[in-house]
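[stage:ingest] chain + small molecule (NAP)
[stage:ingest] validated
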Amino acid sequence: MSFNDTLAIIGGFTVVFHLLRLAWRCLCGFRQFVLTELWHVDLKTYGQWAVVTGATAGIGKAYACELAQRGLDVVLISRSDDKLQMIAKEIADQYGRRTLTIRVDFTDGQSIYAAIAEQLQGLEIGILVNNVGMAYSDNFAYFLEVPDAEQRITQIINCNMLSVPQMTRLVLPGMVERGKGLIINISSEVGVRPQPLLSLYCATKIFVTYFSQCLHAEYKSKGIIVQCVAPFMVSTSMTKHRPVNFFVRSAPGLAREALNTVGHCSYTSGCLSHALQNTALTILLPDWFRMSTFLVRKFRNFATASQRDMNVCKTKETLGPKEE
Ligand SMILES: NC(=O)c1ccc[n+]([C@@H]2O[C@H](COP(=O)([O-])OP(=O)(O)OC[C@H]3O[C@@H](n4cnc5c(N)ncnc54)[C@H](OP(=O)(O)O)[C@@H]3O)[C@@H](O)[C@H]2O)c1
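[stage:predict] done
[stage:export] tokens:
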């Protein structure tokens, strides 16, 4: 066999390998995001109650409402009593489900979990959604620009990281006893690969991703599903309510699509649009380029410019047509 023949065979195998891989990904995507529209798990089978952290706005509120719509009673956990009562009423009026509200601040750390455990006692908790999370800056920022860094660092770690294993510790024993349960942990696309200018936030999200994947491996044989959801941009207060379009999903849209994938995958971008963005980014933006000083600077300039544009728009809206 000549050298050219050998090269041709290697090339042929490589092309077939990549085509098969692409076909497999398309098939998985089709199953995860298209078939599940028609064929999804009845979430009530996990238990009567769902617990959602950070349940009064954005993705958490959307999960709470979607779970109520699918027939579960919901424990809502957040910081603000007024908002908790408002969402509880909304769920009771719209879906006729029971709610329990727990007011805590997850930035307070270890001390809050005894009180949460007490209030959850006696409930048959089938689903836990570890959603609560916060960013540390309004914009992409260098680490030393984090405002009030001394406190902020601990607050973010308590809220985004500590809350996840601590809440899990409270509900998992009951799930194991009943031989079924679902834990959904909201990570982020920036928890998939390192993202400069969001260093602390993205580090907290990779913690959530790894914790979810390991926990799933440990407990799936006991009937527990741990699903990690890693979305791109969702229109919420965290993202300054960016307009919804093909790239930016609405929180209710994401929650509905992501909940459809339960039982079909333990790791998901949450929706088709974000899965496609993930694939595109993997191909178009390799790690070495994303981590380069050149791109970090470019990204920072772009972020500063778009923030400036948004501020100008806001000022114009506030002034109104006359003052303009
Ligand atoms: N938005 C996105 O584009 C996006 C993308 C990927 C992943 N995520 C992740 O999705 C999760 C939800 O984000 P989101 O955009 O929906 O956020 P959001 O709109 O800011 O809502 C956050 C929710 O958490 C509550 N909360 C915030 N800090 C809290 C604290 N210290 N203690 C208790 N409750 C607290 C808030 O209610 P109160 O203020 O009333 O307490 C609110 O209900 C986060 O983990 C985030 O990292 C978001």
